[in-house]
Amino acid sequence: MRWLRYLNQWRGTAKEALEQVSIVAKFLCLIHVTDRYIISSTHVQGPSMLPTLNLTGDVILAEHLSHRFGKIGLGDIVLVRSPTDPTRMVTKRILGLEGHRLSFSADPLVGDGSVSVVVPKGHVWIQGDNLYASTDSRNFGPVPYSLIEGKALLRVWPPRFFGSLR
Amino acid sequence: MASSFWNIAYQQAMKSGVLVAKVYSFLHVTTNYLAFPAYAFGPSMIPTLHPSGNVVLAERISKPSRGDVVVFQSPEDPNKLPTKRVVGLEGDSVSFVVDPGKNDESRTIVVPKGHVWVEGDYIQNSRDSRSFGPVPYGLIQGRLLWRVWPFQDFGPIGPPTTT
């Protein structure tokens, strides 16, 4: 029965440990809710948004409120869940809302062969600022509005490029 | 005194607030990562679901596969959440009749990567991938698991019943 006595000795410590764990758990919940529903930081990289975003990677602050209230407009840089790979998020600019008519050239390196398209209801047209190195709506078509998950607010890293994104 | 009354009131309010926050957090985690209840209505899933309404349980854990009934955000209207059955996964070749009221002309489409093809069980009155095209995985909210109401049909939601 000695182990029962040992258990009793540890009871006080266990209670304190549980309290500490619950404080950490509450803090993590708060961080999670803020990160997912209010504002979060994201690391974005790749050539598709040059010169607005750097090739080697930037950390940007994105807010997750505007898309729930329909406040996404033309020219906004948005974080979108990729329609071709649901585990990836892409960062592009909105160049067309539903009902807009857009012309784009299917292959900017070749030059001609312009295609005209009307953005269907419930969709948006996203394009990277760097037309020559971006896989966007010119490749996978207009994207349903519900796939938009955030709007970029400002860039926080690298520090010399700190500031709002336009 | 007056100040201690307000003190007590403030403490009670804080305690209730903390309790509400804890309950809300628990519900939030459960409905966003595990399972959530939903009310499904409409004729497009007869005979699997009643047109006049069903309360169902949908889960978010498994990846949708062929034959699952899923809830997803409509690509046509982000405020609508249709419920349809997954008929084709990415890479599948799907054949469908373009306009069943007019003629029997059918089309075959290969479902693109990252998308699924959904159709209602009651083809005659269902707005699905035959109208708005394949649905990206990112729009799928959950897979229907169980019907809770009407009580006489309490039970799992399974494969389409062949007529």
From TrEMBL, chain A:
Keyword Repeat: no
Gene Ontology process terms (BP): protein processing involved in protein targeting to mitochondrion; signal peptide processing
Molecular function in Gene Ontology: serine-type endopeptidase activity
CDD domains in alphabetical order: S26_SPase_I (cd06530)
Source taxon at top rank: Eukaryota
InterPro entries reported for this sequence: LexA/Signal_pep-like_sf, Mito_IMP1_subunit, Pept_S26A_signal_pept_1, Pept_S26A_signal_pept_1_CS, Peptidase_S26
Gene3D superfamilies: Umud Fragment, subunit A
All residue ranges annotated as the Peptidase S26 domain in the record: 20-113, 118-157
Cellular compartments annotated: Mitochondrion inner membrane
Catalytic residues of the enzyme: 48, 92
Tagged with keyword Amino-acid biosynthesis: no
Gene Ontology CC terms, in alphabetical order: mitochondrial inner membrane peptidase complex
Keywords (A to Z) from UniProt: Hydrolase, Membrane, Mitochondrion, Mitochondrion inner membrane
Described function: Catalyzes the removal of transit peptides required for the targeting of proteins from the mitochondrial matrix, across the inner membrane, into the inter-membrane space.
PANTHER family on file: MITOCHONDRIAL INNER MEMBRANE PROTEASE SUBUNIT 1 (PTHR12383:SF16), PROTEASE FAMILY S26 MITOCHONDRIAL INNER MEMBRANE PROTEASE-RELATED (PTHR12383)
Subunit structure: Heterodimer of 2 subunits, IMP1A/B and IMP12.
Family: Belongs to the peptidase S26 family. IMP1 subfamily.
Protein's name according to its UniProt entry: Peptidase S26 domain-containing protein
Organism taxonomic ancestry: Eukaryota, Viridiplantae, Streptophyta, Embryophyta, Tracheophyta
From TrEMBL, chain B:
Location of this chain's protein in the cell: Mitochondrion inner membrane
Lineage of source species: Eukaryota, Viridiplantae, Streptophyta, Embryophyta, Tracheophyta
Function of the molecule: Catalyzes the removal of transit peptides required for the targeting of proteins from the mitochondrial matrix, across the inner membrane, into the inter-membrane space.
GO CC list: mitochondrial inner membrane peptidase complex
UniProt keyword annotations, A-Z: Hydrolase, Membrane, Mitochondrion, Mitochondrion inner membrane
Primary localisation category: mitochondrion
Protein name: Peptidase S26 domain-containing protein
Subunit structure: Heterodimer of 2 subunits, IMP1A/B and IMP12.
Pfam family, any one: Peptidase_S26
Organism expressing this protein natively: Brassica campestris (Field mustard)
InterPro entries registered for this protein in UniProt: LexA/Signal_pep-like_sf, Mito_IMP1_subunit, Pept_S26A_signal_pept_1, Peptidase_S26
A molecular function (GO) term: serine-type endopeptidase activity
Location of the active site: 44, 84
SUPFAM superfamilies assigned: LexA/Signal peptidase
Single GO BP term: signal peptide processing
UniProt xrefs under PANTHER family: MITOCHONDRIAL ATP-INDEPENDENT INNER MEMBRANE PROTEASE SUBUNIT 1B-RELATED (PTHR12383:SF36), PROTEASE FAMILY S26 MITOCHONDRIAL INNER MEMBRANE PROTEASE-RELATED (PTHR12383)
Domain Peptidase S26: 25-96, 106-149
Keyword Hydrolase: yes
